[in-house]
Amino acid sequence: MKAATGSVRPSALFFLLLTLIGGCSKDYTMAPSPDGEKVTITINAPQELAPEVLRVMYRSAKCQRVTHGAHGQPQILDGNNSYEGRFERSGETGMYHTALFVNGGGACEWRLSNVVFSVVYRTPERFGEGVVSGSGAEVIVVFDHNSPQLRVSAPMAVTGSELSIVKDFYPWIKESFIRGYIKRVGLAGGDGGDYTYYARQARNVYFEPILHSDFVVSSVAPKKHVVGNFIKFKYPDGTVESDGRSEPNFKKMQKIRLAAEADK
């Protein structure tokens, strides 16, 4: 008789994991306490901009899920429960608000994990017929130890209950031709205009995009994939650069604006 090796077949291990974590699968609904702790998110946007849909992610260590690694090995992760919401506008002002429960409750004892929100141009057609909204200023705030489902920039760790995000942005008109012509208007900012924060203690999140509407940068992408053919950027001072970058030179935009403001 062959001696037992002590190993467990992957299929048997997978079944065992499902058995261990399957107890919560019957009820994934959230049931927060009406008087529970909340995170308040405020956006103070200029009239030209408006927030897009808010994406909210809750996670549960009690109701876990099984996924697989690169070599097929099962891995246990916190369960997730996501939804989309909208900000409430204060009258005709540029102030937008929403509040989210920290504890999502329910049988799985959901906890707020992260939120994703952004602002885009309210009326992109003001930049010309057929112009559509492009990428805007996107912010990810993480409230737990989990990595967000989307990461757009190098994360910054912050402490304290208050998280204030005030950033400069510039209109960016971009034309592309491959797979069909399209003209978009987005926002150019530092770090690509997108920001990720690990802010476990934050309970008040404030975002204010400062839009410098008089300083527009435009770009034209190549019409064909040709080695050495790069996107051409035209800056507010009239200079044109095509140096392999995929986004405007934010430091150059800041320098142009500050010089123009100093001359006034």
Strand and helix layout:
Elements: H1 10-21, E1 38-44, E2 49-51, E3 54-68, E4 74-85, E5 88-89, E6 95-101, E7 103-105, E8 110-121, E9 132-133, E10 137-142, E11 156-157, E12 162-176, E13 182-189, E14 194-198, E15 204-211, E16 217-220, E17 232-234, E18 240-241, H2 250-262
Parallel strand pairs: 1-15, 9-13, 10-14, 11-14, 12-15, 12-16
Antiparallel strand pairs: 1-6, 2-8, 3-4, 3-8, 5-6, 7-8, 8-10, 12-13, 16-17, 17-18
CA-atom Rg in angstroms: 23 Å
Helix content: under 10%
Largest beta-sheet details: 10 strands, mixed
Q: Give the oligomer, counting copies of the same chain as homo and different chains as hetero.
A: single chain
Query: Structural class, judged by helices and strands?
Result: mainly beta
Number of domains: 1
Shape from CA axes? globular
How much of the residues is beta strand, in percent? Answer: 35-45%
Order of helices and strands: HEEEEEEEEEEEEEEEEEEH
Number of helices: 2
Average pLDDT taken over every residue: 89
State the end-to-end CA separation.
92 Å
What are the low-pLDDT stretches, counting only 5+ consecutive residues below 50?
1-25
Total DSSP E strands: 18
Q: What would you note in describing this structure?
A:
The model is unreliable at 1-25 (pLDDT under 50). The chain is mostly beta strands and 264 residues long. The radius of gyration is 23 Å and the shape is globular. The chain has helices at residues 10-21, 250-262; strands at 38-44, 49-51, 54-68, 74-85, 88-89, 95-101, 103-105, 110-121, 132-133, 137-142, 156-157, 162-176, 182-189, 194-198, 204-211, 217-220, 232-234, 240-241. Helix content is 9%, strand content 44%.
